[in-house]
């Protein structure tokens, strides 16, 4: 049983990070097999662009949010797209009554460029901060703010 199936069977939150454009190019079918299990999907602007091509979609966040969910006990899928210093895009697909999507942008606090040494791991840090919010019962906006802060 893969982790996604375990999370679904045990009603645990499951997050999926698209991770890198080359994975989307070469492993799209595997990604498509996991997305129905995801409660939270994360990507950056480069991964978003790769998914736009792979899914032939002008609105990747909404397309992913609308993919059928396996865990009906968790009817919402939250798609989070980071864009560096630009606002973080959030799209929520609520599968409890069809699939109604809502969109929100969350501002990213300005950071002095002299403090930036290396951006490697920034996405992983964001996801860690986001899930700290999920595990402490915060709403999606606060989870995104915690991810941005980290």
Query: What is the general shape?
Result: globular
User: Over all CA atoms, what is the radius of gyration?
Assistant: 15 Å
Q: What is the overall number of helices?
A: 7
Number of strands: 5
Span from first to last CA? Answer: 32 Å
Query: Unreliable runs, pLDDT <50, ≥5 residues?
Result: none
**Portion of residues in helices?**
40-55%
What would the average pLDDT be, to the nearest integer? Answer: 94
Secondary structural class: alpha/beta
Q: Strand portion, in percent?
A: 15-25%
Task: Give the SSE order as H and E letters.
Answer: HEHHEHHEEEHH
Q: Tell me the major beta sheet.
A: 5 strands, mixed
Strand order of the largest sheet: 1-2-3-4-5
Quick summary:
The protein is an alpha/beta fold and 150 residues long. A hairpin with a 2-residue loop joins strand 3 and strand 4.
Write up this protein.
This protein is α/β, with parallel strands linked by helices. It is built from seven helices and five strands, in the order αβααβααβββαα. A five-stranded mixed β-sheet has the order 1-2-3-4-5. α6 (122-135) packs antiparallel against α7. The mean pLDDT is 94.
């Amino acid at each position: 049983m893969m982790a996604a199936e375990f999370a679904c069977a045990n009603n645990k939150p499951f997050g999926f990070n698209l991770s890198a454009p080359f994975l989307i190019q070469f492993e799209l079918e595997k990604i498509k097999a996991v997305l129905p299990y995801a409660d939270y999907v994360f990507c950056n602007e480069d991964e978003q662009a790769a998914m736009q091509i792979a899914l032939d979609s002008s609105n990747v966040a909404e397309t992913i949010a609308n993919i059928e969910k396996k865990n009906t006990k968790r009817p919402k899928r939250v798609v989070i797209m980071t864009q560096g210093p630009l606002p973080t895009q959030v799209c929520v697909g609520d599968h409890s009554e069809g699939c109604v999507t809502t969109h929100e942008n969350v501002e990213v606090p300005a950071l002095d460029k002299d403090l930036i040494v290396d951006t490697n791991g920034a996405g992983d840090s964001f996801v860690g901060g986001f899930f700290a919010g999920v595990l402490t019962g915060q709403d999606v906006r606060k989870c995104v703010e915690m991810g941005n802060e980290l």
